[in-house]
Amino acid sequence: MTQDGSLRITVLAEEGDAAYDRVGLTSYTESWDRALLALPGNDYAGDQRVRLLLNTRVTQIDRATKSVVTAAGQRHRYDTLVLATGSYAFVPPVPGHDLPACHVYRTFDDLDVSAPAPSAPWTAVTPMAGWLSVAACWAWKPPMRCASSGCRHTSSR
C-alpha cells in the first residue's frame, strides 16, 4: 500500500501473455491470433495501480524481507503475497515423455511449439479420452479417430 492508502498490485507472470481464455484454447489453431482469446482488461492498460510483468518467473520467496526474487535476480517487495500458481500440465513418467515430439497442451506457447509443418504428414495421439483430450486432437482438424484408450489423429495436409 502506498503512503496515501491506495493499493498497488504487481502481477508477476511466467507466461508471455496476459490472462486469456484457456478453455477456448482449442480455437486458437483456427486463427493463431492470441488476441481473440484475451480476457477483457487483461493488460490493465491505463490502470496506474497495477503493474503487469510478463515473462517473469519467481524463483524464491524471501519471507524475512517480504520480497520475491525472479529468475533474472530482480527483487520485488510486498506487504501481502498472493500465490496464484495457475495450472501445471502433468506428464506421466512413461518412456518417451521427454522426446522432442511429446508436448503438453496448456498454453499458447505449447500449441505454437506442437504445430506441425503444414506440408508434412503427422499423427497426434492423446492417452486420455475425455472431452478436452478429444478437443485437443480436433484442434488440428480431421481426419481423426477416437478409441477408448484415447485419440489418434492422422493428417496429410
Describe the structure.
The termini are far apart. The strands form three sheets. This protein has a three-stranded antiparallel sheet with strand order 3-4-5, with no helix packed on it. Among the domains are: 9-77, 3-Layer(bba) Sandwich (FAD/NAD(P)-binding domain); 116-155, no CATH class. β4 (67-70) and β5 form a beta hairpin. It is 12% helix and 22% strand. It is built from three helices and eight strands; from the N terminus they run βαββββαβαββ. It is an alpha+beta fold and 157 residues long.
Give a topology summary:
Blueprint: E1 9-12, H1 28-31, E2 50-53, E3 58-62, E4 67-70, E5 75-77, H2 108-114, E6 122-126, H3 131-138, E7 144-147, E8 150-155
Any descriptors?
single chain; 157 residues; alpha+beta; FAD/NAD(P)-binding domain; disordered C terminus; oxidoreductase; NasD-like; iron
N-to-C series of helices and strands: EHEEEEHEHEE
- Helical run tally: 3
Q: Would you state the CATH class of the domain at 9-77?
A: Alpha Beta
Helix content class: 10-25%
Give the second-level CATH assignment, the architecture of the domain at 9-77: 3-Layer(bba) Sandwich
- Identify the quaternary structure here: single chain
Give the CA-based shape: elongated
| Secondary structural class | alpha+beta
Task: Flag low-confidence runs.
Answer: 143-157
Number of strands: 8
Radius of gyration over C-alpha positions, nearest whole angstrom:
20 Å
Largest sheet: 3 strands, antiparallel
Mean pLDDT, all residues: 79
Portion of residues in beta strands equals 15-25%
- Could you tell me how far the N terminus lies from the C terminus, measured between alpha carbons in angstroms? 55 Å
Strand order of the largest sheet: 3-4-5
Here the CATH topology of the domain at 9-77 equals: FAD/NAD(P)-binding domain
CATH homologous superfamily placement of the domain at 9-77: FAD/NAD(P)-binding domain
Cofactor: siroheme
Pathway: Nitrogen metabolism; nitrate reduction (assimilation)
Domain FAD/NAD(P)-binding: 6-112
Protein name: Nitrite reductase (NAD(P)H) large subunit
